[in-house]
Request: fold
Amino acid sequence: MIKIDNTSRNLCLSLVLLLLVGTILPNWFAFLTTVSLAKAMVVVGLVLLMRSGLVSFGQGLYYCLGGYTVGIAGQYLGITDAVGILFVSAFIAGCLAALLGLLLCRYREIFFAMLTLAFSMILYGVLVKTEGLGSTDGFNVAQVTLFGWVPSPEKLSLVVYSLACLVAFLTAFFMHRYYQSGMGFAGEAIRENEIRVEYLGVSPKRVVFIKYVLAAMLAAVGGAITALVAGHVDPELAYWTTSGEFVFVALLGGTGHVVAAFIAAFLFEVIRTIAFDLAPYTWQMILGTTLLLVIFFLPKGLWSLLKANKARGQ
Reply:
């Protein structure tokens, strides 16, 4: 029997609240929220690796793969069901991650980070040189359906928003349970002392392999949702700056709780939108300054601030 704790209850309430307010949100804010939820799922996977002491600078590989799966499935294969495409994206990313993970689970620290970055940039280079997929311009995503229903352009954003909320809820609920499991604690044990984990009879390589595959599937689902809401995919999804953005959000939120990734992703999108509006040519400087302030004053991320306030209230 599944134990329902405070976090699970709050996640259920958050889902209901997000679905209710989705009907009254302006389109631009619904778009921003959908994108932040999609990117948060990528960050949740990245945090999963970081809790094991690994930092991936290549999650853009699977983020882009998920997006292009949506585009190719609709334009060339005639698969337009949104839910089905999400499953296909996760499956393809899982297969690729299972292949690359056999190599990557052997490496740690900077070697792991650089290898993941290299694979992501290989995909970027391939897409840039592939004229059949639009080269540097990418291509548009075909009209999606939902279990045979074709939503009108006015309702499409609400459909994708609702789907993103539901998938984000399932992701947060599952990962919260995962963090509390033996496999979840095994990651932290590997980060602290990998040799002792081996003495306990647990294979660190197998644990890292599983986490890498899970992180890849989450990134692909995030990329697929981004493609659905944006209606366009291009090679920039795999570029190193996109992967760096996910690391930025992970540092902003911290690794203390699964919800931190969602809060940080939303704040990141809000800050970037405001910064771009105020300073379209120097908005990166505002983001960089924000990250420096977070690292200096909150080295464990925004979640440490919420945790400290909660401790003082008890």
